[in-house]
Amino acid sequence: MLSNFRLATARLTLRPVSPADRADLMALEVDAEVMRFLNGGRPVPDAGLFDANFLTPRGEEPEVLAAHHSADGTFIGWFCLFDDGVVDGLQSAEIGYRLCRAAWGKGYATEGVRALIKAAFYSLGFDRVRAETMTVNQASRRVLEKAGLHPVKTVFPNPASQIAGADQGEVMYEICKTEIAIKGR
After folding, report:
1. How many degrees, rounded to 5, is the angle at CA 159 between CA 61 and CA 147?
2. Domain assignment present for 2
3. Domain for residue 41, yes or no?
């Protein structure tokens, strides 16, 4: 779906990942803070995890876009958009992202998510975009809300999880194309 997709924002360039991105992608997964809300901060093996409930890209995933700073080419992180098919009568996609710690708190996540939502609705034909984050992950929740998504429910997918805060569940967010038209975004 995104294999030939490119997107530029005021500060970011998003393009499909390639094997040349492998080291940057893997560097995110050995940073305990980056992985804190995904697996409790444990490093991910070089081969990635194929049975995890989170993405471990290695540079060949068609749904994943590498994000670089437009001015100097610095790797910022990655964004992804998965086609969930038709759900409740709406062509739906799930958005995700992971950024380097050096890029946190600078608005890159919100900028990338907003641009990907706009592309999902106006270039890729989706009616709804969803996202999910741990209830205790306040930074991700702020990003999703600033990007226009709103919480729709809290789920408790894995009661046996050892991740701090997992007992509070995960918040499901979404935004529909019709909401953007109504809000005049």
Report:
1. 50
2. no
3. yes
Residue 112, domain extent: 7-183
Residue 35 lies in a domain: yes
111-150: string of b/e by CB count within 10 Å (b at 16+)?
Answer: bbbbbbbbbbbeebebbbbbbbbbbbbeebbebbeebbbe
Tokens of 127: 């009616």
Q: For residue 94, give both structure tokens.
A: 């799930």
Give kind and range of the element (H or E) at residue 86.
strand 75-87
Kindly report the length of the chain.
185
Domain holding 36: CATH number? 3.40.630.30
Which residues on neighbouring strands pair with residue 77, listed in sequence order? 67, 99
pLDDT by residue for the chain (185 residues), tens only, comes to 566 789 999 999 999 999 999 889 888 888 878 777 666 667 666 665 555 555 566 677 889 999 999 999 999 999 999 999 999 999 999 999 999 999 999 999 999 999 999 999 999 999 999 999 988 889 999 999 999 999 999 988 766 667 788 888 889 999 999 987 655 54
